[in-house]
Design brief:
The structure holds three protein chains of three kinds.
Chain A lengths: L8 H19 L8 H25 L2 H6 L10 H4 L5 H22 L4 H29 L3 H15 L9 H13 L18 H10 L1 H5 L6
Chain B lengths: L5 E8 L7 E8 L2 H12 L7 E6 L11 H5 L22
Antiparallel strand pairs in B: 1-2, 1-3
Chain C lengths: L2 H7 L12 H20 L1 H5 L8 H26 L5 H9 L16 H19 L8 H29 L3 H20 L11 H6 L7 H19 L9 E3 L4 E3 L5 H11 L3 H14 L1 H14 L6
Antiparallel strand pairs in C: 1-2
Helix pairs in contact in C: 2-4, 4-7, 6-7, 6-8, 6-10
Classes of the chains: A mainly alpha, B alpha+beta, C mainly alpha.
Amino acid sequence: MSSSSEVDTGMVLALADDALVASHRLSEWIARAPSIEEDVALANIALDLLGQARLLYALIGDEDELAYRRPAGAFRNAVMLERPNGDFGATIARLLLLAAHQHALYSSLAAADGDLGAIAAKAVKEVSYHRDHARAWTVRLGDGTEESHRRMQDGLDAEWAVWGELAPTQEAVDWATAVITQATLRVPGPVLAVERQEHTADLDELLSTMREVTAVHPGATW
Amino acid sequence: MSDGSLLWEVFVRPRRGLAHTHVGSIHAADAELALRNARDVYTRRGEGVSIWVVPSGAVTASSPDEQDSFFEPAGDKVYRHPTFYEVPDELQL
Amino acid sequence: MSTFEALIAAQDRVEPRDEMPGDYRATLVRQIAQHAHSEIIGMQPEGDWITRAPSLRRKAILLAKVQDEAGHGLYLYAAAETLGVDRDDLLEALHTGRQKYSSIFNYPSLTWADVAAIGWLVDGAAIVNQVPLGRCSYGPYARAMVRICKEESFHQRQGFESLLTMSRGTPAQHAMAQDAVDRWWWPSLMMFGPPDAESPHSARSTAWGIKRFSNDTLRQRFVDLAVPQAEALGLTLPDPDLRWDEERGSWDFGTIDFTELREVVSGNGPCNEVRIGRRVAAHEDGAWVREAAAAYAAKQGTRGAA
């Protein structure tokens, strides 16, 4: 087992914050999804991501300290994940790109010894399912009706433009490209890897919602 | 149907060595989604290791009206059961 | 004696393809649909707190619980569909107000403690109501209820645990827990329905083996379970008339204001419009997605044999 001193804290935080913030946005769909089956499916994915965040936070500190009492500026999540939800097409596009990225990343980390390797090995199985769920819907929306094609393309264009911030591997890009092509959608263009961007007011809004209860009860346990 | 989904019957194998058992039904537009919906709805607590989905319309079922002619004739064939036969206990037949 | 009457007399189960009286079928459709709608609408008051849960552990628990409610709604719609109705029609009836859902969900969830109080009291009352339904005469409904009750036992326990933590926490947490219990206690008692004397369908449902115990019997059972639990929580129940009746071996409780219940049931509850409005919006906003799935399936020829 690796001790926390051997863990790349910045990388673990980025992975955990990505998972937590993505989980938060997905959980906003509950009781709002296109079908009740999809309420259940999105809740499943949100739960998996929340579980990943908790395991990763536990590697480097106290989960609630990190989630509830850390300044927004210290969050390492990609800005694309903190943006408010659009329609279902945009959510599926974001999930497709996030899951493609996480799948490649967790797969490589799963080879490592120690706690992080074990967490990654568990997470690979989960994000494989998320990736497949996003693929199934991308194909249906892309190759469904005219309206769904347009909405899916719009969602994809918007999410793809900021995907570079997650620095997806070539494998992830190739996988997403194949799905997009199968879905009769247009691949928006090359993905340019960029540094993680400055957070926006969207993260402040997200965190103030998340901390609505804890903010008025400092020091309380739940 | 107005929302374009079909009804599918769901069968889950609880664990290896056991047969698939009917657990309920699910709505989905196609087989691939039906399988995924069944997974999310019927196996949230590790209830299964394998799932079948079958379009509800594809199930041919016996009718309750036929119950007597279908199943009663089997009721009196007592010689099909091992307890029908008198054999010495000690031989462990 | 008809086959149906013989099955009921023998306390055997009625299964989907059996002949059954039209009123039996209609009663079951109405009851199962209302039950399913309650699960679906019931996602909202608690679901609103998922993003605001005060710890990641509580967040995961609540997310799993609300997800279960969606699943339970689906089990129940599936049971209703075995009676020859279409889920689309049931949802339509919910959306247009032709079918009801449990009025309890028309009360607002004002604080985080409401999530805990709902778990302890509302799920607690639901379990008391539902356990006997696991033995009701209609097979698919009974099987769905057995599954639901098994899954729901965690729903009540997590609510109790959360309330206990708050009750033993800071004075502000304790006050919040007490306030939530004060607001949810009487509505929970109303969940068992009108008093037996005024319950229009009870006798017939009992004769048909759909209902095993009367409203007042189940309500009393719930009160008797809840009183010692409240004491263990260190919280009071908002009823000055609660006292132990040695002779009955049960707790006496005050008179329920059913006028309020009737108001809420008839659509004048504080959140009726919000709940239905949100449900309808989700359904309408998702129409294009469901249409796309159907169009894709038609193109692919993957719609199965039906």
